[in-house]
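From the methods appendix. Each design record in this collection lists the tokenized structure first, followed by the designed amino acid sequence. Records were kept in a plain field format so they could be parsed without special tools. The example shown here is representative of the layout used throughout.

RECORD:
FOLD TOKENS (211 positions):
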């Protein structure tokens, strides 16, 4: 491994029998072929179900640094499934992932995932367990003939970037001092308790004077 950054120069011990300790990786091309064959075998085994697995919810990444990004989560919450009118046990059987630990912290995320579930349910082609005796909710014969195996992720999550239209800068925006405003906001937050205490003491002194 090559040294990184401006560190100490390594002292290589090449007088030892180092050639015995070298890890080779000659089976990598064969492993690549084996993985590909395994993927194809799995796709044939689970057909006509999607190759990429069940439907995943739309979630936001944690922490302030990444919370502007939207990605696929582990599973839908019980509240989302209930609002969409899907039973939690039925959901797993029709290709919907369920995560009982996740909680809905905002109405926006709940509504977005409920809409996602409803859209998936409308597009879903459900094969009957017995072709001779189809049950309520199963797809008809015409829809079954149209069914094809989906190779990519089910309903991939797309990030939408809203572009701001160019406009004239107003006078208030020109005169606004961002740095001074931030400093003032920090000072107000820091001195809030002290000012409240002084105001309370001043009010008490005024009452004593009136007495």
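DESIGN:
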């Amino acid at each position: 491994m090559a040294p990184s950054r401006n560190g100490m120069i390594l002292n290589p011990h090449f007088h030892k029998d180092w050639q015995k300790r070298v890890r080779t990786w000659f089976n990598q091309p064969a492993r690549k072929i084996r993985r590909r064959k395994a993927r194809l075998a799995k796709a044939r085994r689970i057909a006509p179900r999607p190759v990429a697995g069940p439907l995943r919810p739309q979630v936001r990444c944690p922490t302030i640094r990444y919370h502007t990004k939207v990605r696929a989560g582990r599973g839908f919450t019980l509240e989302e499934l209930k609002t969409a009118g899907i039973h939690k046990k039925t959901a797993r059987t029709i290709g919907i992932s369920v995560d009982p630990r996740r909680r809905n912290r905002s109405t926006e995320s709940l509504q977005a995932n409920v809409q996602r579930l409803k859209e998936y349910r409308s597009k879903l082609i459900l094969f009957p367990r017995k072709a001779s005796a189809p049950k309520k909710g199963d797809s008809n014969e015409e829809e079954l003939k149209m069914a094809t195996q989906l190779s990519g992720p089910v309903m991939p999550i797309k990030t939408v970037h809203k572009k701001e239209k160019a406009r004239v800068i107003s006078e208030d925006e020109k005169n606004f001092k961002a740095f001074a405003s931030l400093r003032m906001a920090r000072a107000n937050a820091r001195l809030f308790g002290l000012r409240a205490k002084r105001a309370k003491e001043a009010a008490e002194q005024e009452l004593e004077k009136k007495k």
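APPENDIX NOTE: The first strand starts at residue 58 and ends at 60.
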